[in-house]
């Protein structure tokens, strides 16, 4: 059953929201990092917080995962159904956090790292071994389990880090830049892992600088800029808010192309490609009116494609005023 926010009783709404925060604030001295942001993450979904370096993404993760306290003037913050102000302990028991700085101890083996986590979660020796073996297998680390973690590749360390986070069976996990510095293959492996978690009903709150990552994984994306949420929506919704979307009509017959071009004077012609571009936000309503218009003009294209701007366009449009030049570089190089 789908519960809509407008009609559901408050208790049901609370149960379906894994994370909710209103008026989240945080300042360091005079510097306002989070200037009253609202966040809502339905259970079992992936939420991506995007933003340039220093936007406050890690700060938001640290507050929601109880590692630091929010500004005193923040509104209500609930995680896993618990109030952060009154019951941070219950939140800690319900969540897992994988930060930018790994919790992996390089001096001991992958398996020992896992068993250490099992101890921290008070699992019995037998249960700890069972959970560790299962997760090491699932994360493709069984073969390397008896080797010191310092010998692992970046991707293996990151997988071990997440495996360690999962020892306690959290229903909500925070992943702060989970693929920064990973090569494309490891990144895709990590995306697969995140998708599996979500298929198991886990809620994922992730921060990322990679727009492609948010596009691939997230149900909803919020762009954080200058202490505020500059825009929020699905990847498709966000792409529609920047100009540049169009419908492209392609023809194989030059005569059909020329006839269409003379009929559709509003369309931008591309003689070489035998294509016409009609500005459009890509919405169903606009598409329908374009199709009606083509029908009434008697134009039949061989191919019709809808082009929406990509998330890069959105990111740059929304964060343009505050992005320093160095942020054109990938993060691992900028550091
Ligand atoms: N303990 C602290 N004391 C003072 N300033 C801080 C502290 N922690 C963070 N800041 C500042 O708050 C701002 C937001 O930092 P934060 O780490 O949340 O950003 P971010 O979006 O995660 O950036 P990045 O992508 O670089 O990790 C930065 O300007 C940072 O310098």
TrEMBL record:
Domain ABC transporter, first and last residues per copy: 19-251
List where in the cell it is found: Cell membrane
The protein's superkingdom reads Bacteria
Q: Annotated Gene Ontology MF terms?
A: ATP binding
Annotated coiled-coil segments of the chain: none
This protein's UniProt keywords: Antibiotic resistance, ATP-binding, Nucleotide-binding, Transport
Its record classes its membrane topology as: Peripheral membrane protein
Note the InterPro entries from the entry.
AAA+_ATPase, ABC_transporter-like_ATP-bd, ABC_transporter-like_CS, ABC_transporter_ATP-binding, P-loop_NTPase
**Gene3D superfamilies listed in its UniProt record:** P-loop containing nucleotide triphosphate hydrolases
The protein here is known as Efflux ABC transporter, ATP-binding protein
Originating species: Streptomyces globisporus
What lineage does UniProt assign to this protein's organism? Bacteria, Bacillati, Actinomycetota, Actinomycetes, Kitasatosporales
């Amino acid at each position: 059953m789908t519960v809509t926010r407008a009609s559901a009783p408050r208790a049901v709404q609370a149960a379906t929201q894994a994370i909710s925060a209103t008026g989240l604030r945080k300042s360091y001295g005079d510097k306002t990092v989070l200037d009253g942001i609202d966040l809502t993450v339905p259970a079992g979904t992936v939420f991506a917080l995007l933003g340039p370096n220093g936007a406050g993404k890690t700060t938001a993760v640290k507050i929601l995962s109880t590692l630091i306290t929010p500004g005193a003037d923040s509104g209500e913050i609930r995680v896993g159904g618990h109030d952060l102000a009154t019951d941070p302990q219950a939140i800690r028991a319900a969540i897992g956090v994988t930060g930018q700085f790994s919790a992996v101890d390089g001096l001991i083996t992958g398996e020992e790292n896992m068993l250490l986590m099992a101890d921290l979660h008070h699992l019995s020796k037998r249960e700890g071994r069972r959970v560790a073996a299962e997760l090491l297998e699932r994360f493709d680390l069984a073969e390397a389990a008896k080797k010191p973690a310092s010998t692992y590749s970046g991707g293996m360390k990151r997988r071990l880090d997440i495996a360690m986070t999962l020892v306690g069976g959290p229903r909500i996990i925070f992943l702060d830049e989970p693929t920064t510095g990973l090569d494309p293959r490891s990144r895709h492996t990590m995306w697969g892992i995140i998708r599996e978690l979500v298929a198991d009903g886990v809620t994922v709150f992730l921060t990322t600088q990679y727009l492609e990552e948010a596009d691939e994984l997230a149900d909803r994306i919020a762009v954080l800029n200058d202490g505020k949420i500059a825009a929020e929506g699905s990847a498709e919704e966000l792409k529609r808010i920047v100009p540049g979307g169009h419908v492209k009509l392609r023809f194989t017959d030059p005569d059909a192309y020329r006839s269409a071009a003379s009929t559709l004077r509003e369309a931008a012609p591309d003689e070489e490609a035998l294509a016409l571009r009609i500005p459009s936000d890509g919405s169903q309503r606009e598409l329908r009116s374009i199709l009606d218009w083509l029908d009434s003009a008697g134009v039949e294209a061989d191919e019709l494609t809808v082009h929406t701007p990509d998330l890069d366009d959105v990111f740059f449009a929304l964060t343009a005023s505050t992005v320093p030049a160095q942020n054109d570089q990938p993060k691992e190089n900028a550091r």
